[in-house]
UniProtKB/TrEMBL annotation:
Residue ranges constituting the N-acetyltransferase domain according to the UniProt record: 4-195
Listed name of the protein: GNAT family N-acetyltransferase
Matching SUPFAM superfamilies: Acyl-CoA N-acyltransferases (Nat) (SSF55729)
One Pfam family in the UniProt entry: Acetyltransf_1
Domain of life (superkingdom): Bacteria
Amino acid sequence: MDGLRFAPANEASWDDLQAILTGAAGRCQCQRQRLGDHDWWYMPEAERAAILRAETHCDDPRATETIGIVAYQDDEPVAWCAVDRRGVYGRVRGSPVPWQGRDEDPDDESIWAIACVVVRKGHRGQGLTYPLIAAAAEHARARGASAVEGYPMLTGGGKVIWDELSVGPVGPFLAAGFSEVTHPTKRRLVMRLDF
């Protein structure tokens, strides 16, 4: 895709990230996966946003850590992907779904996870999720991950709302080289790319 580039979130502006996170994604502020349902549910949106801002270090290109990437199309912010060490995602750690049939340490810091994918309204349906997942995997690899996981959903070719599909569809993970680890529910897969 011509003019498409990816930046670690600390190299993006907070305003750019907020331009992507609208609607349900704006209410979530990419905190539900990190905090887990109970803590997230009772937290005001402003607090969620403050936490995300601190975690991303937006507007601070010298920051040594960040928790995701921002996609730009010709300098317009168009997509966000949360990618970080798997153990920081309280919802992943607390759910039996990703661990069904697996026996490994959820706190292994060398394993990263793609926990949230958001394409900005007006830019959906253009295939941006494919290069976004590949860039998120590269972001994890470049920061020392030995593997990166995703927890995408099978859509059956149907239209799915973002609330359900914030984890991404299966196709972009397959295209980026991920393989199925388990199929714990009818629509959910655990996928992984080892480096």
